[in-house]
Write a structure and sequence with these properties.
Number of domains: 2
CATH superfamily of the largest domain: Cupredoxins -  blue copper proteins
Number of helices: 2
Distance between the termini: 48 Å
Oligomer: single chain
Structural class: mainly beta
Largest sheet: 6 strands, mixed
Radius of gyration: 22 Å
Number of strands: 27
Bound molecules: copper (II) ion
Strand content: 25-35%
CATH topology of the largest domain: Immunoglobulin-like
Order of helices and strands: EEEEEEEEEEEEEHEEEEEEEEEEEEHEE
Shape: globular
Strand order of the largest sheet: 14-13-16-21-18-19
CATH architecture of the largest domain: Sandwich
CATH class of the largest domain: Mainly Beta
């Protein structure tokens, strides 16, 4: 079935319908292993590209979702784990492969899983956004996602897209290798690294406070920051009776002197942007969110929530330990008395170690780069040039303006698009409505649907952020080109 009207649904996520049959090629079975709940230590292992097959194959994975007590920053709490691990396992495929993922929900709660950055061309119904593209997956059941990245390659991630579950741990990397990656010869091995802000209180509780009618404050302040699921908090500030271990082990990435590494860095956090750097090691950016760019070398990069960067790090220094720094920029999150968890005693300097093989098992003593970066801003777009270059599409056929404000709606503070918050209808997802008898004009205002009906049209969208905070915008299913970026009006 083909729907010719094209709908732009703007919420946190937007989707396009273009149903086309997909062939399922040969199957490559993955072994599942039962494990005790624990940390994902595989995330510190280097890896090489997958073997290239003559034609695309099916990569089959199982994600068993459950809850377990873990202490990512030393403080014990219930964490949502996948296959017994936090952060969740890495899912990998080659360009064009079919990706089949069986999600076994043992959370005692509903869930859905979204594949962040994958266009889902022809498989909108596997996009995993609760209330927008699918109904909830009940506990005790398995839901199988089945999609291909098509021509897509690069660094993505998967996460729960129901409520705020991903903030409690349901997230992991999703990598699509391109056998013809232009930079394959520029590095020897790869690593993946996640950055996240972390809370001690289950996010559902925090969201409940945040969304209480009449609440006038800001978003909750995190308790710590994590690099690949490891961080440290100040146990002296933990509530009485809680389990908290100081000096929690931090992330350690071990490199061989003389080798070059591609680090795929993903911010899987709730709100905080990070300024990322590795002492004495410049970062050569080669990929930004599934797009190859002409290499540009910076010593520090800002990475906002949902963003991904691939950087090449050359292990060409003396055998030693070097700090990896993922600093939460204080100015970018609202730490004021009018918020939740204001006494979190958050240590903004989130660290890990880049250890050369042979260096002692000790903390680094290295100094931070002196480079200054603009707080709460992206890497300068003017520095990032697509490789190969691709001109923006000419002549927009449709124009939309999204005014982003943060204001009360039904007495609850919401992010609003042109005055309305998106309200997911969990039992009748928006895309479901479109499949049956609803026409775009019949959608309620709170579906925030922006409709265009031009075959092969080009949509120009102006986003005006009228709020003082920074907000990354995530356009699912589209390659977008930034045409203009005004300087902030403060
Ligand atoms: Cu996402």
């Amino acid at each position: 079935m083909r729907i010719t009207s094209i709908i732009v649904l703007f919420s946190l996520y937007s989707t396009i319908i273009n149903a086309a049959p997909t062939a399922v090629p040969t199957l490559e079975k993955r072994q599942e292993t039962e494990q005790d709940p624990g940390f994902n230590t595989n995330i510190f292992d280097s890896f090489k590209p997958l073997e290239v097959t003559a034609s695309p194959i099916t990569r089959e994975y199982t994600l068993k979702l459950a809850k377990a007590e873990l202490a990512p920053d030393g403080f014990s709490r219930i964490v949502l784990i996948s296959n017994g691990r936090y952060p969740g396992p890495m899912i990998r495929a080659n360009k064009g492969d079919q990706i089949v993922i069986h999600v076994k929900n043992n959370l005692n709660d509903f869930t859905t899983i979204h594949w962040h950055g994958i266009f889902q061309k022809g498989t909108t119904f596997y996009d995993g956004v609760a209330g927008l593209t699918q109904c909830l997956i009940p506990t005790g059941t398995t839901f199988t996602y089945n999609f291909t990245g098509g021509e897509q390659y690069g660094t993505y991630w998967w996460h729960s897209n129901f409520g705020s579950q991903y903030v409690d741990g349901l997230a992991g990397p999703l990598i699509i290798h391109d056998p013809k990656d232009p930079y394959l010869n520029d590095y020897d091995e790869e690593f993946v690294m996640t950055l996240s802000d972390w809370h001690h209180v289950y996010s559902e509780k925090l969201v409940k406070i945040r969304m209480t009618p009449g609440y006038k404050g800001f978003n909750p302040v995190p308790n710590s920051g994590l690099i690949s699921g490891r961080g440290r908090c100040d146990c002296s500030k933990a509530p009485q009776g809680s389990k908290c271990v100081p000096d929690n082990p931090l992330a350690v990435y071990v490199v061989e002197k003389g080798k070059r590494y591609r680090f795929r860095i993903i911010n899987i956090g709730a709100e905080a942007p990070f300024t990322f750097s590795i002492d004495q090691h410049p970062l050569r950016i080669i990929e930004v969110e599934g797009e190859n760019v002409k290499p540009v070398t910076l010593n520090k990069i800002n990475i906002a929530v949902g963003q991904r960067y691939s950087v090449i790090v050359n292990a060409d220094k003396e055998v030693n330990n070097f700090w990896i720094r993922a600093t939460i920029v204080k100015q970018c999150i609202h730490v004021s008395p009018e918020t939740i968890n204001v006494n979190s005693s958050l240590n903004y300097m989130v660290t890990g170690t880049l250890r050369y093989n042979g260096a002692p098992d000790a903390y680094p003593t290295t100094q931070e780069w002196e480079e200054k970066v603009l707080n709460c801003r992206d890497v300068d777009h003017n520095l990032l040039k697509l490789n190969p270059p691709r001109p923006p599409p000419a002549n927009p056929t449709d124009n939309f303006t999204f005014r982003i404000t943060f204001d009360d709606f039904d007495s609850v503070g919401h992010a609003l698009v042109n005055g309305f918050p998106f309200k997911p209808e969990l039992e009748d997802p928006t895309v479901n409505k479109m499949m049956y008898d609803t026409t775009p004009s019949m959608l309620k205002q709170n579906q925030n649907a922006f409709v265009y009906d031009t075959q092969n049209g080009v949509v120009e969208i102006s986003i005006i952020n009228e709020n003082m905070a920074t907000h990354p915008f995530h356009f699912v299913t589209y390659i977008i080109t930034i045409i203009n970026h005004s300087s902030p009006i403060l």
